Amino acid sequence: MSALPTQIGALAQRSITRTARQPASAIPPLVFPVVLMLLNAGGLHASTKLPGFPTDSFLAFALAVPFIQGALFSTMNAGTDLARDIQTGFFSRLSLTPVRGSALLAGQLAGIVTLGVLQAIFYILAGLILGVRFASGPAGVALLLVYAALVALGFGALGSFLALRTGSGESIQGLFPALFVFLFISSMNTPRNLIAVDWFRFLATANPVSYLIECVRSLIITGWDAEALALGFGIALVLALISLAAAVWALGQRLERT
Amino acid sequence: MNVWPVASGVAWRTLKNVITTPSIIIPSLAFPLFFFVAFAGGLSQLQHTPGFDYPNGYTAFQFVFVLLQSAAFGGVFTGFGVARDFEGGFARRLMLAAPNRLGIVVGYGFAAALRWLIVATLLTIIALIAGMQVGGGPVDVVGLYSLALIMNVCGFLWAAGIAMRLRTLQAGPLMQMPVFLLLFIAPVYVPLALLGSTLHAFARFNPVTYALEAGRGFLAGDPTQVALGFGLPLAAALIFSVWALRGLRSAEAAG
Lengths: 258, 255
Prior knowledge:
heterodimer, A: mainly alpha
């Protein structure tokens, strides 16, 4: 067996174990989005009575949000963990060993993607238990897991890039409100065509997070919507590629400095 | 023994720390504004749902929620500062130096109120620029802001009680999660009658529901649920005063 997969596997296992051992890191990304979804579903149930609302279950409409909200948490976790490695000197010590820099990044991201898929399974089960039925069927659920992995990869790479650039966990945590803005100024609570305020509808339309949410939502309430799927997967793929390229570049810079 | 010298000193230090630390002041200001923009902008179509009967429009409807939320969280965030002071050892030195330790709690409480006042001023200006309709007269407006101030006191006393018992910032989620849940198990987006059945069942027994309804009544110039709206938060403030003071005793006992 070649060294690189072994190195990646060991670092991925470390990433997962580290998150699993910290309830404060592992539990909020699972529970908080579901709690918020339930509260919003109760509070915004009346929205389903608006003419043109795409479903009569706000829970089904809102179930898409935890997937993206969980991915935002992944960004923070990936970034904070990597920043801690830099701050504690683990990264420097590792760079003195034969472990390749690419293995460090790939291992970290493999851990984040695994956790992202586990989160997605948790949200799907929560939705099924609460009575949501997936219009796209079991194949749609399988596709949703692939999508969750892709989104987790994109946001995880973004978090890693930020960590490699700043080297500070506090700075990563400080970016959390900025990421939350993208979530709230989106179609998370209302379909874009039903947003009455012009400037808000414009911002929600320009916000890529709207399309990430609508891709998940289409699998839950519409079935197979080619446009929503293409936009969602396309944006997730572009985000992943750009973030990965940026993270690899930042890794090189960091290793040069180390 | 006079409480004021200690209280004013603690309040001044806490407020100065908040204002001069961008990582504290910016989220404090940005989050309420952001919630207001996101809710009032993104959900305004809800005012057209059958049964939505608030006369002053959705911006005013959401303003009251965000005002009360900012007040409660202004108190909770000050509790974070108390925990940080204990964690760093400052609070222990303060307790040794203070001739009247009650002044420590009062001082932090003052700082919480003044900190919220900054947020409330900015929020009000933004809401008025956004075209919020104010139906109530001066007395109603004073009623609304008084209600928010009581929420601020409740939020602070609750968080301070935890901070002085646990004396670590790791208690942060314990301070804010119950407040967050209480605020959202209430008619946040639509009037009580339009809530989903489960949430409605919980919201009916939530004191925040009555504070929200009273606040919205004041803003519309049609006071409603005033007795419950003020009475329940005042009772909570009384209970949390005992909670916070016992927390102070706990911190004293810990040395």
